[in-house]
Amino acid sequence: MDPGEAIAGGRTALGIELGSTRIKAVLIGPDSAPLAVGSSDWENQLVDRLWTYSLEAVWTGVQESFATLADDVRRRHGVELTTVGALGVSAMMHGYLAFDADGALLTPFRTWRNTNTGRAAERLSGEFGCNIPHRWSVAHLYQAILDGEEHVGRVDHLTTLAGYVHWQLTGEKVLGIGDASGMLPIDDVTRGYDTAMLARFDQLAAEAGVELTLAELLPAIALAGQPAGTLTGAGAALLDPTGRLRPGAPLCPPEGDAGTGMVATNSVAPRTGNVSAGTSIFAMVVLEQELGRVHRELDLVTTPAGDPVAMVHCNNGASELDAWVGLFAEFARGLGADVDPSTVFETLFAAALGGASDCGGMLAYNYVSGEPITGLEEGRPLFLRAPDSRLDLGTFMRTHLFASLATLRIGMDVLQKTEGVRLDRMFAHGGLFKTSGVGQRFLAAAIDTPVSVGDVAGEGGAWGIAVLAAFVTGRSREQSLADYLETTVFPGASVQTAEPDPVDVAGFDAFMQRYVAALPVERAAVDHVTVGRRQTADPETTSAVLTEEQPA
């Protein structure tokens, strides 16, 4: 079908994803190929020591991404975007959005990046018998209870960022099961929230002097392929204030960026996995069987279809690497060189290939924020080296690339070596892997596993949620998500696979020994270096090339 005819006839699916540094919209056709894209950049803020985005920024960014998408449709296909066949919303997982009975936000959005929930996460992990990460919604709620926050008694509804946008577009308070699994653990049999944990949470709240019923506060759960509402007139006006977009499109369950990353890399079947590297870095591995015991480094979540997944989530990904690349770009501009950001990245990444395999005595910690895997509630970016280490560009860049993967390696060691989990394939996607043959090669060394990249990631998480939207209207009766992806979306997809280089593997191992041994230095920096009350990322020195979540 001609793309213009497909768009005019509503034979399309629209995906919108709110990542850490970019809000992106992708329109796909009947063959799942992207027809148009739009985006809007945004940045989180550190306000009163908590990372947040304003709801005003949410809608400014969503509307701008849709407007630029509509412009792209008009420019490329010569038609107006007035309807879509299906729609889906995805966003950064976890965090805390609490609303009262009138729909008013009770406290600024607390994102996945916050690590102020240590007491709550530790208590809930012990009470529930499973790892409850700092960033999960239930940890945020319990921490607010422990801290005696006034708003707790007025909470009527909790959700995630994807759930909030979906609610505003449809009126439905619902979440995809993958995103819901970052609010409270899921029962593998019922595919609902764990009822024993719901009851125990209510008891813990009562012991702290708060009467609530957690089950009444959480969104309903839906699986991939199930309809989750339709675009209302008010929702259409929110997306497109020009009034051109008509209501009525069905929506798929809203999902987190981890779930859309699994879809975008065809990694929803057991023994498959993917690594997403942007502002954060995380690995998702679909499990064949239960883990042997609880590990604080591993989160148990689900695929969008509800299958169990082990997640290694690191709060800090490429932001610090981005900052250093921005510094070199600023230096180049000072010399009068007119270079685009992609050229700067490619040049510096290529230099890393020639650096010392073990980083030659250099160390870096990319901790812009706290890092629960290594027990740090706040972060202080650090670079340090031994007095006798040679300071050359290649080794310096390799050190920062290794640092971006180091905390992930700690969690993957637990998964692969302690639990013996096996992988048939691991895909890598996100800004860290855009420069061919560098990030992919170093990740293969970090986890001593072949790593694939390629066109399977499409346009990132926005494309992944568009595929999930199309799955609602386009799947055969009772067709599984894994089968739909394999037979309809990804047949013939090309990938490039990097095998671990023994020299790189040995070098990364040596780097990790120094990295773990020097963690007390990072702890000392947190203890002795203070942070201002308000901080906003500087768009002039921070590039979205790496930190864009794809899907992240």
Structural summary, described in words:
It contains 19 helices and 21 strands. Strands 3-2-1-6-11 form a five-stranded mixed β-sheet. The protein has a five-stranded mixed β-sheet with strand order 14-15-13-12-18. 54% of the residues are buried. The chain starts with a helix and ends in a 5-residue tail after the last helix. The longest helix has 26 residues, at 393-418. By secondary structure, it is of the alpha+beta class. β2 (22-28) and β3 form a beta hairpin. Among the domains are: 94-159 and 184-217, ATPase, nucleotide binding domain (Nucleotidyltransferase, domain 5, 2-Layer Sandwich); 319-405 and 501-531, no CATH class.
Short description:
With 552 residues, the chain is an alpha+beta fold. 38% of the residues lie in helices and 17% in strands. The chain is built from 19 helices and 21 strands.
